[in-house]
Amino acid sequence: xxxxxxxxxxxxxxxxxxxxxxxxxxxxxxxxxxxxxxxxxxxxxxxxxxxxxxxxxxxxxxxxxxxxxxxxxxxxxxxxxxxxxxxxxxxxxxxxxxxxxxxxxxxxxxxxxxxxxxxxxxxxxxxxx
Length: 129
What we know:
Elements lengths: L1 H21 L3 E2 L4 H21 L10 H29 L3 E2 L2 H19 L6 H5 L1
Antiparallel strand pairs: 1-2
Helix pairs in contact: 1-2, 1-4, 2-3, 3-4
């Protein structure tokens, strides 16, 4: 279970970095320290809130249910990015402008969390051989 949680955290980090780099409506700061701090704050907020309010299956589910969980996770991530757009200037040098940017950032974040979560875990026996 800890492995899946770690992969979700890694997916959140990758998603925040991709969204911050690709989307023109997200400004992370002027200097590299500001950018790093903004990415750290955004990742921490997303990781903490997605760990507190876990939206996802705990066992194998049929495809329609998986789609419903993905949609609920997308809404959750979009709401978190909306929160980040409000508190970004108060905590770090981050600005998120526009509702479309918030939706795209939520979609990118959820897609990377799901993609990294689907990577099969490597067992200790596979590592030693």
